[in-house]
Every structure is written in structure tokens, then in C-alpha cells.
Amino acid sequence: MPTGVALRDAREQLFEAAERILLRDGPSALTSRAVTTEAGCAKGVLHRHFADFDAFLAELVRDRIARVDGQAAALRGAAGTGSVAGNLAAALTDLFGSVAVAIVALITFRDDLRARLRRTGPAGGGVPLLTEATAMVASYLTAERELGRIAADADVGTLAPALIGAGHLLFADRTGPRPEAGAVRKVVTSVVGAALRNGPFMKRT
After folding, report:
1. Nearest one of 187, 195, 189 to 166, comparing CA atoms
2. Which of 39, 43, 88, 106, by CA, is between 20 and 30 Å from 9?
3. Which letter does DSSP use for residue 194 in this model?
4. Which of these, 192, 197, 184, lies nearest to 94 by C-alpha position?
5. Whether 87 contacts 78, CB under 8 Å
6. How far apart are CA 175 and CA 171, in angstroms?
7. What is the number of helices (H) and of strands (E) in the chain?
8. How many CA atoms lie within 13 A of 198 on its CB side?
9. Any bridge partners for residue 42, and if so which?
10. How do residues 26-73 score in pLDDT, each as one tens digit?
């Protein structure tokens, strides 16, 4: 098997094992031995591909941040279609209804990991992944403002982090039931409702 294919397979196998542990047991249970045991491989496999466990965790987070970048492109592409509140509710559900909440908990739990990510991440600090998620929402809101679907004076710089913060809190309990779609829509509308033109469920024809 070519080396590149083997590396991708091993990385993804280890990443998926780490995510399962995070979702099931939380960040305190995430160790190199736990990951390799969960993945069903020898402990040396992880250290063949990563300098140390913190390097592995940093790459896990960066991989998931890259997924947010893909979501950002899709959300911005939705500008001008559907309803603003509906698009935002769907984006928050996609973002936080996945492993992202557990990844944020991991970043918060491990100071060294957070510091490592900040050294290579965007300037200005903030929590990695949440920073990219906030930029995703801000880009979408800016596009909708340019289309006239939210008010011209809407403060995107305030609305975007407010939406991400509210969404994160809504999904933060990994042991509880997933929030219903109506609850997510209600949170979105409470944050951006005043900025929407012609009502929160307005559609552009």
C-alpha cells in the first residue's frame, strides 16, 4: 500500500477513535493508550505518525477546523435563499450537533493544546474552532446584509459571536438529548430577529 494512503487511513482511524472517546467519556478520558485501544491498533502507530500526543490532538482539531471551513463555504453560498433564520439554525445544528462541542471541551480542558493551536491559528486569540465558526457566521451575515435581507446597520461583529455562544450553550450537554429544531430556531431568532428585514422567516424571491 502506498505510504500516503496508509498515512491517511491511520490518521483518520485514530481521529475517529479519539472522537468516539470524547463523545462517550469526555476529554479527561482521552489518552494515547485510550485512542490506540479504541482504534484497535498498537500504541506505536500513533507515535509513528505524530511527534507526541499533543501533536496528534492539535492535528485532530485542525482537521475538524478544516471541516468548518467547508461548512462556511456552503453557508455563504446559501445567502439569498430560504430564510436567514432557517439557514443559521441549520448551520448551528450542523456545527454543534456533531463532535465539535466535544472538540471545544477538549481545547478548553488542555491548556497546552490551546496554546499550541493559538501559535499557528488566526491572530487575535479566541478559542480555536469557535473562532472559525464565528467567522463563518459573520461571513454569511455580511452576505445577507449586502443582499438587503438584514438591516444595513446590523452589527455583524456582535451578532456572529452571540449566535455561536448561544448555539454552543444550547448543545453543550453531550449527555442530554439533542435540542429540537424549534429550540434552535428560537435561539437564532432571539439573537438576530431585530436585524431581519420583513420578519425573521422572510424569504427572498
Report:
1. 187
2. 106
3. G
4. 184
5. yes
6. 10
7. 10, 0
8. 8
9. none
10. 888 999 999 999 999 888 899 888 989 999 999 999 988 888 888 999
